[in-house]
Design brief:
alpha+beta; Alpha-D-Glucose-1,6-Bisphosphate, Chain A, domain 4; Phosphatidylinositol Transfer Protein Sec14p; mitochondrion; CRAL/TRIO_N_dom_sf; Protein real-time
């Protein structure tokens, strides 16, 4: 490439008996720019750092390049990958992506952006030409074939008869087709009890007559559906049959080859794949706090966002198989890191939450047991409000995999994300040193909106949309309803979400160190009306009373710093001309799952008066 003037190898390391090679270079690049721009920036050359990751076992070459020159003004990150075609191993696939973020560049940011995109486009077009150049150069040297790296089992082999012992992805059944090959289980499925193995074989027999159009599910898929239904063959069969029918109706098997990412999603959706976690799981990062939920929904619609999610899930399935081969152990789920920095009440816009709930429901039904760990980082005060709303729709087993980090420094805090992600793979926006293609998102310009018909009910999704998960309460004028919550887990978080359906309602939260019992049949008295209680002495109000009007929703949370009894109290004011009606839901976030500061949490309103920004 003419623009590359020189390359200096800084690091060059071999691993696994030469199977893997990591090379780091410092490259001098000629600046192809008009004379005036060269004069302004004062240089004719710039320097880039290039990292090559060659893996002969998996037949992949990944190349990452970042700019060293003007790094404080411009961030350039380019990644390309060569790999064997998954279906035809004699073919080579090549993909290339790049980001350009110009922060401040001598007042000529727009010109630099146009020049950078032009340069990148020209370089990309040379990709095939460069490959063919080196292939022809090898031919001239008499090299037309290079032996593939031997299978892992044969690297230290001393006999020629052991030349190829790689395990098939479809294992042979042993002993009258009643058990699986033990080596296959260890390599692709992980530890199974004899009973679990037997149920897996039985489930496979129910789906063994596949067709070319609808092939039989592989063992990894069967195992995921079995785990999701506690190894009940009948329940797993029903769930998998419904999912296979859904895949057929929506052409899910073709989504990886046919899906085209909309331009607005490419530019404003802040999510993407990023290396692996410490357990080898593919890692997906979503910067939800900087995502313009309303803008994306109005630009591409709910169906398109669902299709984007399904494409990500299908990519995840593919990456899990690649990781299984790469690390030589079963990888049957992936890791999700959600950055909530910037999350606010605008993210609780009702159509956005409804779209999220639809996505969660679809993924839970059709991609069970694919989520190995979920890291929620930089969670702000409003987060428990959103969690209260959506957590009831997430499978209990999946919810147990969530870890929450509330402070701004999620990297270095005690038991921070360094426990789960290698330090050199933590993204720079979280305090790490690793560059990433995942951008910040940002507001979608309104001229890109295609739909103004999306419901403009500002705030969170209403309680009556939760299909019976909320409880209803009717209160006569002057009547109280108190929910007593015993806490034995200091630093846990109490969250609530309720909607007033009829007449005004007063709401407050109290705490006492005493263990309380309900006040009995007198619904017009509080537990604190007993003579031995005195406010400020042995109980206190920890959330000031707020008046909630009809059709207003209130969401809030409070860190339960101490043990004792917490009381959520609703009251219909005596001056009301009729009874009040409300629907409520509450949940406790355990301190074991929440890692970080959650002090000074505040309630939030979602009503027709709340402006969605």
């Amino acid at each position: 490439m003419p623009i590359v003037l020189d390359c200096e190898i800084i690091e060059d390391t071999l691993y696994d008996n030469g199977a893997r090679r990591d090379t780091k270079r410092r490259c001098k690049i000629a600046v192809e720019a008009p004379y005036l721009i060269k004069k302004i920036i004062g240089v004719d050359v710039v320097f880039f750092i290039q990292k090559n990751f060659l893996d002969m076992k998996t037949r992949t070459l990944s190349i990452e390049a970042t700019n060293e020159s003007f790094a404080t003004r411009v961030e350039i990150f380019e990644k390309c990958r060569y790999y064997a075609h998954p279906e035809n191993p004699d073919w080579t696939c090549f993909d290339q992506t790049a980001t350009l973020d110009i922060k401040n560049f001598f007042g000529i940011e727009h010109s630099m952006e146009k020049m950078g995109m032009k340069q990148y486009t020209q370089t990309t077009l040379k990709g095939k030409e460069i490959i063919e150049y080196f292939v022809n150069e090898l031919k001239q040297e008499g090299i037309t074939h290079v032996d593939r790296w031997p299978a892992e089992e044969t690297v230290n082999s001393t006999t020629a008869t052991q030349a190829n012992t790689a395990l098939p992805e479809k294992p042979p059944l042993c002993r009258d087709n009643s058990i699986l090959d033990a080596d296959y289980i260890a390599k692709y499925l992980g530890q199974l009890t004899p009973l679990q193995e037997s149920k897996l074989v039985q489930l496979r027999k129910r789906f063994e007559h596949g067709t070319s159009e609808h092939p039989e599910p592989d063992y990894q898929t069967l195992l995921r559906f079995l785990r999701a239904r506690d190894f009940s063959i009948d329940k797993a069969t029903g769930m998998l049959q419904e999912s296979l029918q859904w895949r057929k109706e929506h052409r899910i098997d073709d989504i990886l080859s046919e899906y085209k990412t909309p331009a607005v999603v490419e530019k404003y959706f802040p999510g993407g794949w990023h290396h692996h976690d410490k357990d080898g799981r593919p890692l997906y990062i979503l910067r939800l706090g900087t995502m313009d939920v309303k803008g994306l929904l109005k630009s591409v619609g709910e169906d398109e966002l669902l299709k984007l999610t399904l494409h990500i899930c299908e990519e995840g399935l593919k990456l899990m198989k690649e990781a299984t081969k790469l690390f030589g152990k079963p990888i049957w789920n992936w890791c999700l890191l959600v950055d909530l920095d910037g999350l606010s009440m605008r993210h609780l816009w009702r159509p956005g939450v409804k779209a999220l709930l639809r996505i969660i429901e679809t993924v839970e039904k059709n991609y069970p047991e694919t989520m190995g760990r979920v890291l929620i980082v930089r969670a702000p005060r409003v987060f428990p409000v959103l969690w209260t709303i959506v957590s009831t729709f997430i499978d209990e087993n999946t919810r147990s995999k969530f870890l929450f980090f509330g402070g701004p420094d999620c990297m270095h805090a005690e038991d921070g994300i360094e426990q789960y992600i290698d330090t050199d793979k933590i993204p720079s926006f979280l305090g790490g040193s690793c560059s990433t293609l995942i951008h910040e998102g940002g507001l979608v310009p309104k001229h890109l909106y295609k739909s103004e018909s999306i419901e403009e009910s500002n705030g969170a999704i209403h309680a009556h949309d939760h299909h019976g998960l909320y409880k209803a309460v009717d209160l006569k004028p002057g009547q109280l309803f108190e929910l007593l919550i015993r806490n034995t887990d200091p630093k846990s978080v109490l969250t609530w979400d309720f909607e007033v359906l009829k007449n005004d309602t007063l709401f407050a939260v109290y705490h006492t160190e005493k263990e309380l019992e309900p006040s009995g049949n007198d619904d017009f008295s509080s537990v604190f009306d007993a003579p031995d209680f005195k406010e400020g002495s042995n109980y206190k109000k920890i959330e000031q009373s707020v008046k909630c009007r009809p059709k207003e929703g209130v969401q809030g949370s409070h860190e339960m710093a101490s043990t004792g009894t917490y009381v959520l109290q609703w009251m219909c004011p005596p001056s009301c001309d009729g009874p009040a009606q409300l629907m409520y839901f509450h949940e406790i976030l355990s301190s074991a799952n929440y890692k970080g500061s959650m002090t000074s949490l505040q309630s939030g309103f979602s009503s027709n008066s709340l402006q969605s920004r």
